C-alpha cells in the first residue's frame, strides 16, 4: 500500500510542516488609516531594530504620533531615533511611506501594496528592491526585482529605499547543522532527498529499478486524474493525433 509523497504531506497542513509562527515577532505592515486621514501626514519614530526568524531582513519598530506601534522592514541606512513619515504628503525620503502616484520615476522602493489598503505584499526579502519605471494617469509601472514590469494602482503605497541585509546570501553556510537550524526556524524542508533515491512506497520514481539512472519511471507520464503531488515526471500532452479538417 502506498503512502503520501512529501509534497502531499506538506500540503495537508499537519504540525510537522506547519510554520512556527508563534516564534515570529509580528506582522510587517504599513500604517492603516481611514478615508479621513488619507490626505494627512503622520510622523513616527524608529524605537528599535530587531531580528525575526520569519523574515530574512531586519525589522524596525515604529511608534507614530497617535501612539500606534507597527513593525516594518528595515531599509538600508535607517537608525534608532530616526523620524519617518507616512501619508499622502510625506516627503520622498528613505524610510517614508507614501502612494506610488507621489513617488518620482527612478525611485527605489520596497514593501509594495498589491491593492490599496492591503498593508504591503511585494518586495519584502533582504537586499531586494523595486524601481518606479513610469507613471501614467491611471496606473504606475514598477520594475520588480525579477526585472519584469508590473502595473499597480496609483493609490498603492510603498516605502522608499533599499531593504537592509543585502549580504545575507554571500556568507557561506559551512556546516549542515547550521543549515538545518536556519531552515527549521521557518519550517522549510531540509535536507531534500531526490525522488529516485527514495523507496518505492515513498515516491513513484523510487525503488532503484529501471534504466541507467535510479528511478524506474523517469520517462513515465502520471495518470490524467492523478491527485496533486502524484503528477510527477513528463508533462502530459494536451492532445494526441492529427486534427480533423
Write the layout of secondary structure elements.
Layout: H1 6-12, E1 41-50, E2 59-64, E3 69-73, E4 83-87, E5 97-99, E6 108-110, E7 130-135, E8 140-143, E9 149-152, E10 157-160, H2 176-184
Antiparallel strand pairs: 1-2, 1-4, 2-3, 5-10, 6-7, 6-10, 7-8, 8-9
**Sheet with the most strands, sense and barrel status:** 6 strands, antiparallel
CATH topology of the largest domain: SH3 type barrels
| Secondary-structure element string | HEEEEEEEEEEH
Tell me what the CATH architecture of the largest domain is. Answer: Roll
Low-pLDDT sequence parts: none
- Mean pLDDT, as a whole number? 85
Alpha-carbon Rg, integer: 24 Å
**Terminal Cα span:** 47 Å
Notes on the protein architecture:
This protein has 2 helices and 10 strands, in the order αββββββββββα. It is mainly beta. It has 2 domains: 1-18 and 187-245, no CATH class; 23-160, SH3 type barrels (Roll), CATH 2.30.30.30. A 6-stranded antiparallel β-sheet has the order 5-10-6-7-8-9, with no helix packed on it. The chain has a 4-stranded antiparallel β-sheet with strand order 3-2-1-4, with no helix packed on it. A hairpin with a 4-residue loop joins strand 7 (130-135) and strand 8. The longest helix is centred in the C-terminal third of the chain and has 9 residues, at 176-184. The chain is globular and about 65 Å long. The relative contact order is 0.14. The model has no long low-confidence stretch (mean pLDDT 85).
Amino acid at each position: 500500500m502506498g503512502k503520501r509523497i512529501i509534497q502531499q504531506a506538506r500540503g495537508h497542513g499537519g504540525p510537522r510542516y506547519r510554520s512556527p509562527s508563534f516564534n515570529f515577532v509580528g506582522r510587517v505592515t504599513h500604517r492603516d488609516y481611514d478615508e479621513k486621514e488619507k490626505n494627512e501626514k503622520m510622523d513616527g519614530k524608529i524605537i528599535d531594530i530587531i531580528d525575526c526568524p520569519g523574515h530574512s531582513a531586519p525589522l524596525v519598530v515604529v511608534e507614530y504620533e497617535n501612539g500606534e506601534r507597527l513593525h516594518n522592514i528595515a531599509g538600508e541606512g535607517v537608525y534608532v531615533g530616526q523620524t519617518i513619515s507616512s501619508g499622502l504628503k510625506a516627503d520622498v525620503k528613505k524610510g517614508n511611506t507614501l502612494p506610488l502616484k507621489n513617488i518620482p520615476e527612478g525611485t527605489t522602493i520596497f514593501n509594495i501594496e498589491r491593492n490599496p489598503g492591503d498593508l504591503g505584499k511585494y518586495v519584502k526579502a533582504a537586499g531586494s528592491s523595486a524601481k518606479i519605471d513610469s507613471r501614467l494617469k491611471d496606473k504606475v509601472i514598477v520594475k520588480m526585482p525579477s526585472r519584469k514590469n508590473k502595473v499597480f494602482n496609483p493609490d498603492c503605497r510603498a516605502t522608499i529605499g533599499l531593504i537592509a541585509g543585502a549580504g545575507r546570501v554571500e556568507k557561506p553556510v559551512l556546516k549542515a547543522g547550521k543549515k538545518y537550524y536556519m531552515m527549521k526556524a521557518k519550517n522549510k524542508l531540509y535536507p531534500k532527498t531526490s525522488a529516485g533515491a527514495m523507496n518505492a512506497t515513498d515516491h513513484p520514481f523510487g525503488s532503484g529499478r529501471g534504466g541507467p539512472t535510479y528511478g524506474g519511471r523517469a520517462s513515465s507520464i502520471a495518470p490524467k486524474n492523478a491527485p496533486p503531488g502524484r503528477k510527477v515526471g513528463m508533462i502530459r500532452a494536451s492532445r494526441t493525433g492529427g486534427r480533423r479538417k
